[in-house]
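Format notes (please read before filing issues)

Several people have asked whether sequences and structure tokens are stored in separate files. They are not. Every record keeps both together, in the order shown below: the sequence lines, then the token lines. Line labels are part of the format and must not be stripped during preprocessing.
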Amino acid sequence: MATFDPRPRKPIVAGNWKMFKTEAEAEVLIGQLLQRLDPLIEGIEIVLCPPFTDLPLVGKLIDGSKWHLGAQNIHWERQGAFTGEISPSMLVGLGCRYVIVGHSERRAYFGESDETVNRKVKAALAAGLRPILCVGETLAEREQGRTEAVVERQLSGGLDGIDQLSGVDLVAAYEPVWAIGTGVPCGAGEAERVSGFIREVLGRLLGDGTAEEIRIQYGGSVKPGNIAQFTSRPGIDGALVGGASLEADSFATLIREALG
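Then the structure lines:
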């Protein structure tokens, strides 16, 4: 495995609300978060990824803060007859800075492939959005010793045709499928080992310099009680958080723990 010189990378924690929170519920949650967290917080980047229906409201509520708005999905076309989809320009118009791409739930339930993920990554970058590219293996794949092969395939496919300059705006998220929503996180040491492998693959794909700039999150049953185990590791640059981002106390505590 390649050895990289350590460089400071600003930690990034993104809250993926998935299909939770009506507008009224989102307004309450954001109000509670703003009471518990400094809206001008330094030392860590906070991204909130609510459902599409909440994006305008959440964007308005966090306006003036240093928090960023993110979407959970994107279509690769600028416009067209794609019922139920949303385009890059629509997300930009709502104030989104980030977008989650290739989440395992999208791959498993909606048939997303490495090819469609790649098209979405390219569309996001072209629109000025920063994609959070999710990769990770299932339990069966891990038990078969295929973790590295699966992760490398997803990275190679998802980043096909991406150049070094564009790659700097990428965030990678290692999300082992078997840890998402199960309450059984990956061990911090193993998460860092796979994150190191991800950075090695990114180096081969985009160049070592670009790979060193890319932040790699861990995701999968991240909670206030274990976040520091991951973020204290120099090879892990933050977390993609699901359930723990849906309650103000847990998410605020998680952010403070990640700050150390």
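For reference, the curators noted about this record: The longest strand covers residues 96-101. The radius of gyration is 17 Å.
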